[in-house]
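User: I'm curious whether this sequence folds into something compact or stays loose and floppy. Could you predict its structure so I can see for myself?
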Amino acid sequence: MPINQRPAILGKIVTLIVPIFLATAALAQPAHEENDHCYVDGLSDRLRCGYVKVAENPDNPNGRKINIHYAIIPAVKNIYPNQAFLAIAGGPGQSAIDNAPLFDNTFGQVRETRDILLIDQRGTGRSNILHCPEDKDISPLLINGDDFDTVAETKKCLASIDSDVTQYTSTNALNDFEAVRKSLGYDKLHVYGISYGSRMAQLYMREYAEALATVTLDGVVPMQQSVLAIGLAIDRAFNLLISDCENQDQCQNQFPSIREALANIKSQLLLKPIKTQIFHPMTAQPTEFLLTHDKFLGVIRLALYSPKTRVLLPHAIDQAGKGNYQAILGLYSLTMEGMDIAMGMHASVVCSEDIHRLSADLSAELAQSYIGETMFSELSQVCSVWPSDKVDERFSAPVSSNIPTLLLSGELDPATPPDWAKLAMTGMENAKHLIAPYAAHGVAMQSCANRIVAQLIEESSILELNGDCLKDVRKRGFYLNASGIDIFMPSTEQPLKITSEEVL
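Assistant: Here's the prediction. I'll summarize afterward.
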């Protein structure tokens, strides 16, 4: 669930999407081609790659065809040749194949005995990507989202895409996944879905339960949840950050006026952007930097996704309050080149599956959240011109399942808080929810949870799963000054207090 500081069609903020219920469609027998071997950047191992040819529009099997590409990271010792570990990427719009090094590094224990299967969802990566052109002439250091006409940019993107964008939904993507499984001859899949991928995994549970052995949902997006609730999740995570600092002596002593500094920066940026001279984060040469309100909050939001960058925020906010924006620029530089998100596919999913699912209660809450309200405004403009077939309320039904299922949540997650996993479990009769107290988004990548996933797969049972190791981690302290990071371990009997005051 990434954020893109320089999107082509969403001028300010890119959000998580919540794919929901889908109708089962009959799968035509697809064409299947496979290469003997291939390689992916960042991974030295030789992979098996290929594609399955499917109809772009399943209701028109004789019409246009698209290739759904896959890559297999082969098992070290293939004890279970009829099983595979399917890792589903997030976004929506991320390529699973491009993330092969990350999945391989995280799930090496799983790979000891089972193939890792990666599929580029239709509209992403190598599977007929729906890419929106970007204006390369504008420096990301000087870009101002308020200068973009979202509707015009959306129309420009549509004009550049030679595809029926209404067909790039979670529904059709799931059927593609199943077509790949059948073509490769796997009897059972162990499915892992992260962020948006957790929604795809739940859909798999609902529609093709017989094909699944186990399921892991990491950073859970419940079927019942509107995507726009992420605005409130971001507010929660940042309030937790501020309270965390205030409740820790070293951080509070170093940054005693963090709330005041934040309020002052926001007020100033709402009036007008700040243009300042800084040192370029890549070249170290003096250059101009335009800091806007949306860019500032975008930097904060993205930094909350990882414990490694989260700890830098009090210092960065404090320095910005004193007129020094170098630290904010350093965090912003992590996203200057944008994120690898297929924005056309992102829009197809969002506009068909989420934008219309805003309840009156959620709307009222979002009206009090700047980020939440901004997301809704931007997405509404995009979806006003993006062709889509809206899903109905049946899609919001929770998944009923007895498949052994592990749900993972990070207490610090700014996108999918633990309560979302509890909501997703409503109809799951054979599920266990583990919370990592010091993890953010993507628990398996940040903790011992990857070993717990391997245990689930090996035992095909949740009974012996234990999350004690998730607590045996020293919490990262905040970056205080040039001397480094203060490492502290709060008492488990004294949980951090979360203020109800809205910060963002």
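Summary: The mean pLDDT is 87. The two ends are 19 Å apart (CA to CA).
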